[in-house]
Each structure stands twice: as C-alpha cells, then as structure tokens.
Amino acid sequence: MRRARAEEQLAFRCLVLGLAVAAAAPARAATTPCAGAASVSPCFDADPVWIPTGPTPFATVPSARTLAPKTLSFVLAAGYSDRPVELVTPSPHPDGQEIAVVRATSTLTLGARYGLTRGIDLGVALPFVPFQLGSGVESVTTQQPESLATVALRDPRLELGATLFGRNAAAPFALGTRLTLGLPLGSEHAIAGAVTFTVAPELTATLHAGRLELGAELGWRITRAVSFATVREGSAITAALATSITLLEKPVLALGAEAWLSAHLAGRPTGVPDDALDLPAEWLATLRAAPSEAWSLLAAGGSGIPLSRVHEAYGGTRQALGVTSPDFRLLLLARYTLDVN
After folding, report:
1. What residue spans define the domains of the chain?
2. Architecture of domain 38-339
C-alpha cells in the first residue's frame, strides 16, 4: 500500500516537473527585443541628436571652450522629428510598403553645466519624450503588438569637458575634448534608448574670425549593436560641422547652418549586400538671438540628407528595409548662463 502510494507521488512529481519544463522552454527559446538575434529590434534611440548643455552659438555642436570656474549654464530644448524610423516591407508595389514605426516624435531636453575648475566642466542632460506617434516595432514582429509608448524617458547623459588649447575667450581658435556617458534608461517600447551604456569620447574645435564662427566635432559613440532590418544600430563615428555669421551685434542676431552624419561601425546584418550604404545624415538652418550676455535663443529647421544606398541595393522589395533618419526636424532652444560666485 505504502509502496503504491510512493509510486503515485513520484509519478505526480515527474508530471509536475515535466509540465514546468515544457512551460519554461518557450520562454527560453523566445528572443527578447534587445537580443542580438532579433532582426527588427526597438532598442535604439529614434532621436540620436544630443543637445549641448553649455553655451554655444550652434544648435548641436558644442563649444570647445569649457565654462569658467563657478559658472552655471542651463539649456531647455524642444525638438520634433517627422518619420524618423520606418520599415519598407515587400509588397506588389515596386517601391514596397512603408510602415511608419515612429511616425513623429518629440524630445524635451533639460540640461545643466557647471565650471568645475579652469579648463574643466561637468554637465548633465535629461531628455524625454513628451509625445510621439507610430505603429511601433511590434506591429511588424508580433500578432498582438503593444502600442508605441507616447511618453517616455530617453537615455540621460553625464558629461565631462576639458579645453586643450585656447582657454582664453579672446583666442580665435580653441580645441577641446568631451567624454559623455549615456545611461541605458530609455524605454524599448518607445524606441528611446540603447541596449547598454553609451560611452562617447569627442573632439571639438571652434574658430572665431570677426563676425564668423565655425565649429567642428568628431566623436565615437560606443554601445552594443542591434539590428533594425537592413540597418545595424550601435557604435558609430559621428562628425559635425557648423557655421554662424552675426548680422547684428547688440542685441546679437545671427544666421547659421549645420550638418552631421553618423557612420555605423557594427557591420551589416546577415544578408545585406556589400554595396548597401547606411549613413544617417542631416542638415539644419539656424536663427539665433541673444538679447543679453546671459540669454541665448535659437530656432532651427532642417531635414535628412539622402546619403544611404540601401534603397538602390534592395530595390525596396527583397526584404524589410530599415530607415533611421527623419524627413525633417525642428528645434527650439533657450540657454541661460550665470556666475554663481
């Protein structure tokens, strides 16, 4: 009797264990959205533009000069991007079917920078999404998709800057370096952040000649890569150029132009032709007004630059085609600097 009961208990335990293993197996086999094997991953930022936290005559290119000691600077920036993330899927139409994964997105950036000592300053930036529209990545990869988050946090950033040459404000040329750390807190359901920490060393240069100001930036953003169809989002070399010419000096009124591109270093996803080229690039026209030495207001508008050859390589019909640069972009910035001595 006891032996039969013990055999029944053993059989019941084996059945429970088998059911548990069967239930756990699909979970193990399932590919998480941020896994390297995911072919269409949402784990990158739909708005990769980093707004400088310190004073600069440009919208996206930081100054090579750091803040003076015990000087504090604030920035409030609002940005809008139209159709920054799209998929083109095979369809009877020769150009394929366009899916607006992110139809429109906005970014509100709150930033501050403090002059720590001569030639060195620290900064922090908190960008978040107040509103966005789109079908989301899951509309392509699952039958019961979760809608694209309309409000979310993007990856916050910590910054360390140093001026290598030209610390004197009267010097016509300055060379600086910056190190930025992006914290992976952005939501994958909003396409608002990287998979892991982002480490970005940068070199910046500023040239001032009369009413003309030139700026340049060369950086390396290092983070783990994910695939978005034919695009591999991850570590990239970034380069930017900016110019500004002062029309009026008191109060300051200036016109400018900026352009930047990002060269991905993570390689191509499997099956992408060798002649496919993905170089997200944009340009902006800017209008800046500075009613006082403390305040600076800037408005900018621009669009993506068609440097990619992915469309030509694929013809839009062979498989899902990833596009990660906006049709156009708008920016509004306000900067304020004060001496806290």
Report:
1. 1-30, 38-339
2. Beta Barrel (2.40)
For tokens 């695939």, the residue is 227
With CA atoms as reference, report the closest residue to 202 among 54, 70, 44: 54
Buried-exposed string 91-100: b where 16+ CB fall within 10 A, e elsewhere: eeeeebebbb
3-state SS record for 312-326: HHHCCCCCCEEECCC
Residues 6+ apart with CB under 8 A from 2: none
**Among candidates 189, 273, 270, 180, which has minimal Cα distance to 225?**
270
Report the mean per-residue pLDDT for the chain: 83
For residue 280, which of 96, 111, 41, 81 has the smallest C-alpha distance? 81
Structure-block tokens of residue 95: 């150009």
Cα first-last separation, the chain? 89
Q: What is the pLDDT of residue 37?
A: 65
In one-letter notation, the amino acid at residue 206 is T
How much is the pLDDT for 5?
Answer: 53
Tell which residue, 215, 214, 236, has the closest CA to residue 224. 236
Distance CA 273, CA 134 (A): 28
> CA 265, 240, 226 angle in degrees (round to 5)?
25
pLDDT tens digits along 54-95: 999 999 999 999 999 999 999 999 999 999 988 877 666 656
For 311, the 3-state DSSP assignment is helix
Residue 12 has pLDDT above 70, yes or no: no
109-139 per-position pLDDT tens digit = 999 999 998 899 999 999 999 999 998 887 6
Q: Calculate mean pLDDT across residues 177-193.
A: 91
Which two structure tokens, joined as six digits, stand for 143? Answer: 């039958």
Judge whether residue 213 has pLDDT over 50: yes
288 beta partners? 254, 298
